[in-house]
Amino acid sequence: MARDQLEVLNALDVAKTQLYHFTAIIIAGMGFFTDAYDLFCISLVTKLLGRIYYRVDGSPTPGTLPPNVSAAVNGVAFCGTLTGQLFFGWLGDKMGRKKVYGMTLMVMVICSLASGLSFGHTAKSTMATLCFFRFWLGFGIGGDYPLSATIMSEYANKKTRGAFIAAVFAMQGFGILTGGIVTLIVSSAFKNHFKAPPYSADAIGSTVPEADFVWRIILMFGAIPAGATYYWRMKMPETARYTALVAKNAKQAAQDMTRVLQVEIQEEQEKVERITLKESNQFGLFSKEFLHRHGLHLLGTTTTWFVLDIAFYSQNLFQKDIFSAIGWIPKAATMNALEEVFKIARAQTLIALCGTVPGYWFTVALIDIIGRFTIQMMGFFFMMVFMLGLAIPYHHWTTPGNHIGFVVMYGLTFFFANFGPNSTTFIVPAEIFPARFRSTCHGISAAAGKAGAIVGSFGFLYAAQNKDKTNTDRGYPPGIGVKNALFVLAACNLLGLMFTFLVPESKGKSLEEMSGENEEEEREHGNVDLSGKISTV
């Protein structure tokens, strides 16, 4: 197969790991750090919002957010993220990665601050304002998914590209961890300064007026890491692959990468024109040619991310059962408002530290050794095994004395999600599509994942309710129960395992080799293997 690889792209592919790689990881990773912080910190303060704004006089238990309000507060950012992934993914291919990268960050900074300044004369108006700003916060976060992955993949060398993209995504773990730590610090400081009795002793006095500042400070903190990286994002040059293959400016691509790699690179305008004018590089996103070459790939990346996020985001359904059963979180009425926030944050931080963070870094260490396909298959398989291990003897796990085993199994499902499809579904879409569609296709895949997150978070919140109406959470109708919900989630993991066969292995290959952008014009359609192993194409 003849190849017209540009010198500037070849230089990136074979470059030794150096400072600019780590700079790109930090700049892109801090965006993901902020994304995770902003998306997950709301779950730490929803109980507090219920106590402040939805207290019921004379009730034996503290106020909680009604189901529709809880779904809106927790889920509106996911809706914004889905929209942002599609919009900014498309825009990243039209305007360039760098230009759009700054926009997403500014939206995140402004909306993080605005979320903490949510206002209103009534509980309903305050929650409506909060939901409005969190939708747009999610919109900005959504743009970070396709752009961070695409930028890192286009900057990396082919030998360690998987580890670099995985390292960017792994910053999510630190974002979740930091959310818990910030909440611990803020709630502890307020709790120690403003003493309050438990709810059972004084329903009104258990929630001090100053508690209203706690959730606002926690939400606004997300603006700090995002704002800190804005300058460095603007200093990054546009990726050479976008400049050369999409903008068709060989001179600028060579100049940018000469400065970044600190080696002299020739501009090859004629070769750029020849490559981009080939028939194989002229088809559109909604063409039969795209469907023929990459249709199954896109189906694979969207379906695996969709079913993964159903399983991943639904895992918080039984957190409250675990935490209560092992004594990490006592009954709400025995605590004051700030004490409850502190104990929820402590439990979440321990889960993040033991189950969430390690899995990400196992992926970073091993992805370029054992490959994306193996890690994704293994992750889906073990998630299915551990969910069945929780579901089949569910009554056993919920009886006194067996809770530690339940926590271990629960932690392992998180571990194999992150050392598995939660990482690989983010990495692979940034490697297998042509440069002119790369950001768009990653955005489509990520949006499918976020649709799965919405199903997992809210569909299963209702589905996992007890079959007995008297034992459901306040305001919820009866469901199929946690045990049956776990069986459904195990089936989702099985589907993910099956759809993984549609996704090609990209370990050790250049982006152009995976996308077919350097192919000969003369080709035979019958010689294209849609599993990703391209013969003459």
TrEMBL record:
Keyword check for Ribonucleoprotein: no
Main subcellular location of this protein, as a coarse class: membrane
Domain Major facilitator superfamily (MFS) profile: residue ranges: 24-508
Ranges for region Disordered: 511-537
Compartments where found: Membrane
SUPFAM superfamilies linked to this entry: MFS general substrate transporter (SSF103473)
GO molecular function terms attached to this record: phosphate transmembrane transporter activity; symporter activity
Alphabetical UniProt keywords: Membrane, Phosphate transport, Symport, Transmembrane, Transmembrane helix, Transport
Gene Ontology CC terms: membrane
Family membership: Belongs to the major facilitator superfamily. Phosphate:H(+) symporter (TC 2.A.1.9) family.
Protein name: H(+)/Pi cotransporter
